[in-house]
Amino acid sequence: MRSYDVVAELSLYMIRRRQMSMSMKLFGAVVMSVGIGFAGGFAGGFTGAAWAAEGTADVPASVAEGKDFGCGAKGQKACPMQGWMKTVMQSATTSGDGAKIAAALDHVASKPPPGMPKWVAISKEGAEKAKKGDIEGAKASCKACHDLYKAEYKAKHRDATF
Predict the structure, then answer these.
(1) pLDDT tens by residue, 6-51
(2) In angstroms, rounded to a whole number, what is the distance separating the alpha carbons of residues 75 and 68?
(3) CA geometry: angle at 82 spanning 76 and 86, to 5°?
(4) Which is it for the CA torsion 82, 85, 91, 96, positive or negative?
(5) Alpha carbons 66 and 68: distance in angstroms, whole number
(6) SS3 for 57-77, per residue?
(7) Model's pTM, two decimal places?
(8) Are 159 and 71 spatial neighbours (Cβ–Cβ below 8 Å)?
(9) Any residues with CB less than 8 A from the CB of 39 and at least 6 apart, and which?
């Protein structure tokens, strides 16, 4: 899945979550004003809770809790690692310069987030491939790290200094 697909999916999830929150408030107000009572409203077949439960099955806890990092979303500044990746790493990989890619991957290896035990090994493996001129192998290491950690990193550490 491409990064913009993940961002779009996350944005849609957050929109649905806000809509659900507003629907719940409206529903609660209607139920209370009509005098049916809280229990009667749900007994009448309200399905919003089922939608909310199934919509959060594979969403990281910090995202499901609605944590706002203040960066990375449309109209916001880039998060620290996101900005670094767009300027330094993207420039290095686009250039095809093995030394630049290796230096960037070594920098990434020096900044492992907690709970991501393969981060350093993957980065160092990519750096070694780049030093040997295996640019595609180095890019494959990037993909392996993204596949393994990108969603979790964005959900837990996206505002961390990098």
Answers:
(1) 555 655 555 666 555 544 454 444 444 444 343 444 444 433 333 3
(2) 14
(3) 105
(4) negative
(5) 6
(6) CCCCHHHHCCCCCCCCCCCCC
(7) 0.59
(8) yes
(9) none
